[in-house]
């Protein structure tokens, strides 16, 4: 009978319904998503699966929000082990399991939509909460992706900011919204761009390098006047023939008289050092 369980389920409910015993739940291969919630191990283990598990525990009136909700709005950057952000109204008391981060704030029915049964804050509400709750670079990366995906646009952000004048967190929101640039094609590009802009530099995202009108390459970030390109090479750089294509693109840039700074995930652990490296290259 235990093999009839599929999808995501609350362990205690499955035991009460006779679908599985406590011993089977411990010994068989169901994946523990959060405390008390399990999933079919065949399901991809990502942040949305974890949110789906948390949704089974939510009290009425609460919703998946912030960085977690952004996964439904074009910014799936939260990892499978990251805490799930939940927004609850002031009159709803709920702490949730330890894998959850609960944010207490006003929340109306208009702020929430259901996606496959999961209550998720709307794109507009998510944009505001991400800007309030997350570090600046993380917030801007999520907002860049949401605008790029069409979940919100820059007019929506301007309207949100105007409507939220005087609201708690508006200073953080104004700062994050002012840094949004949907040309960035990945979270690391956004993180590096934000660090550079805050340092007083002005990189151009997704700049097309041309020589005599002929396309040479498109760069992640560029300083055209200095002919300096900044390229981020994530894990995909080493997949299949991607490394060959990337290396050929770098050679074309260098042949066109451009210098290229190549960054990896390890470099992003110290963005101050990245900024110093780029500033030094610009000074040469």
Short description:
Helix content is 38%, strand content 20%.
List strands and helices in order, with pairings:
Layout: E1 8-10, H1 11-16, H2 22-27, E2 31-34, E3 37-39, H3 47-55, E4 63-64, H4 66-69, E5 84-88, E6 100-104, E7 112-115, E8 118-121, H5 123-133, H6 136-149, H7 154-163, H8 170-177, H9 187-198, E9 204-211, E10 214-223, E11 228-232, H10 242-255, E12 259-263, H11 271-283
Parallel strand pairs: 5-6, 11-12
Antiparallel strand pairs: 1-3, 2-3, 4-5, 7-8, 9-10, 10-11
Helix pairs in contact: 5-6, 5-8, 6-8, 6-9, 7-8, 9-11
Q: Would you report the number of β strands?
A: 12
Structural class category: alpha+beta
- Give start-end ranges of low-pLDDT stretches: none
Order of helices and strands: EHHEEHEHEEEEHHHHHEEEHEH
Major sheet characteristics: 4 strands, mixed
Estimate nothing, just give the exact number of structural domains: 3
Major sheet: arrangement of strands: 9-10-11-12
The mean pLDDT is: 92
Q: Whole-number radius of gyration?
A: 22 Å
Taken from the alpha-carbon principal axes, the silhouette is globular
| End-to-end distance | 71 Å
What's the helical proportion of residues? 25-40%
In what range is the share of β-strand residues?
A: 15-25%
Q: What's the tally of helices?
A: 11
Any overview of this molecule?
This protein is α+β, with helices and mostly antiparallel strands. It has three domains: 38 residues, no CATH class; 131 residues, no CATH class; 97 residues, Endonuclease, Chain A. It has eleven helices and twelve strands. The strands form four sheets. Strands 9-10-11-12 form a four-stranded mixed β-sheet. It has a three-stranded antiparallel β-sheet with strand order 1-3-2. Helix 6 crosses helix 9, helix 7 runs antiparallel to helix 8 and helix 9 packs across helix 11. The chain starts with 7 loop residues before the first strand and ends with a helix.
């Amino acid at each position: 009978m235990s093999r009839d369980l599929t999808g995501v389920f609350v362990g205690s409910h499955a035991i009460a319904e006779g679908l599985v015993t406590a011993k089977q739940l411990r010994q068989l291969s169901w994946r523990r998503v959060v405390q008390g919630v399990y999933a079919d191990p065949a399901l991809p283990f990502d942040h949305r699966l974890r949110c789906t598990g948390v949704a089974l525990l939510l009290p009425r009136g609460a919703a998946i929000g912030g960085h977690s909700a952004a996964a439904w709005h074009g910014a799936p950057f939260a990892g499978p082990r990251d805490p799930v952000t939940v927004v609850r109204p002031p009159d709803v008391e709920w702490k949730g399991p330890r894998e959850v981060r609960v944010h207490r704030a006003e929340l109306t029915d208009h702020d929430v939509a259901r996606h496959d049964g999961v209550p998720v804050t709307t794109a507009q509400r998510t944009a505001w909460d991400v800007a309030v709750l997350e570090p600046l670079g993380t917030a801007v990366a999520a907002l860049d992706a949401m605008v790029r995906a069409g979940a919100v646009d820059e007019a929506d952000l301007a309207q949100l900011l105007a409507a939220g004048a005087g609201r708690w967190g508006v200073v953080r929101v104004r700062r994050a919204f002012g840094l949004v640039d949907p040309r960035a094609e990945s979270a690391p590009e956004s993180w590096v761009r934000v660090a550079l802009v805050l340092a007083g530099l002005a990189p151009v995202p997704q700049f097309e390098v041309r020589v005599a009108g002929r396309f040479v390459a498109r760069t992640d970030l560029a300083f055209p006047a200095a002919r300096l390109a900044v390229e981020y090479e994530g894990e995909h750089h080493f997949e299949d023939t991607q490394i060959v294509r990337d290396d050929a693109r770098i050679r074309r840039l260098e042949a066109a008289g451009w210098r290229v700074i190549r960054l990896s995930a390890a470099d992003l652990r110290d963005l101050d050092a990245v900024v110093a490296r780029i500033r030094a290259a610009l000074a040469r």
